[in-house]
Amino acid sequence: MSSEATPGRKIKELEVMVADVITETPDTTTLVLFTGNDRLDYAAGHFLTIDPHQFDALERFLAFLEDLKGRKEPPRAYSMSSAPHERYLAVTVKEERYISGTTKFPPLLSPLLVRRTLRGMRLVVTGFTGPYTMPTDITSQTDHAVHICAGSGSVPNFSMLKYALEHHPSLRHSFVYSNKEWKDVIYRDALADLSTKHPGRLRVIHTLTREEDKSVYGPNVRRGRVAIDLLRETIPDPSACMVFVCGPGISKWDHEAAAKAGTKAAPRFLESVLADLKELGVPARRIKREFYG
Ligand SMILES: Cc1cc2nc3c(=O)[nH]c(=O)nc-3n(C[C@H](O)[C@H](O)[C@H](O)COP(=O)(O)OP(=O)(O)OC[C@H]3O[C@@H](n4cnc5c(N)ncnc54)[C@H](O)[C@@H]3O)c2cc1C
Description:
binds flavin-adenine dinucleotide; alpha/beta; 293 residues; 28% strand; 6-stranded parallel sheet
């Protein structure tokens, strides 16, 4: 199956069955979805959407939130963590938290998907689409793909990485992955296994902002945020590599709150990485980004 979007491909609704529920980290779950005989026509990096209105358990909460917000709750997007050549479709969902005084509303769908979705449950998903994919001719443009992710931003990159390791043998990958603590690292073992399986083709560098345990740190597990020095080290070829950045950025809610306070929203992961890439001289056309608000 091709990783590339087929021209004329139609977005369609699929009824899927949850074939497996994998706990990745304390707040993140992978849902492996069985799709029957439906042809899975998606590219690595694409997402599907899930409409919260299909869940009886959310009915009252949804009605209440819609009254409060004065609008219908839209479907939520989830990138595929599976790759197109794999047998099952999978998404990986990180639970959003309600933080008193910070978040305006309790998150609607991710707590249900992470905590209350069981094997055998049926879901309706709509897919597949999205602009965050590797160019089909990537190997004619570079031999080095740089993935820079934070939190659940690793999901589409994990799919792209698996697909490219399988289908683009001349491509090397650097995977820079930021999390708070070591226990928060999604696909930790899977990434380590891929580096072992593809020697010389994948380098994974973790960076942790709040890990107190000194024993986890080492050459490939750094302390702090993704900063320009780490990017400089990872990208010796700024004008020749291709970079794929995915993670939290300034949301429209952040912009609204800042405007109300008469300030400007502070840069988040995405804005700060994009500013550093610019400073390093990576041309804008060599950067693809996906924003998780
Ligand atoms: C292309 C794309 C791909 C994505 N892929 C993934 C993925 O692979 N894995 C993953 O875990 N997530 C992914 N996401 C994020 C996901 O779509 C959801 O946004 C996330 O799961 C939170 O949904 P929720 O219903 O739990 O929270 P929501 O109910 O959407 O709330 C989230 C936050 O927004 C605030 N908020 C909501 N409505 C308002 C409002 N009207 N005014 C002010 N603040 C508001 C809430 O207070 C809360 O802080 C992706 C997003 C995009 C755009």
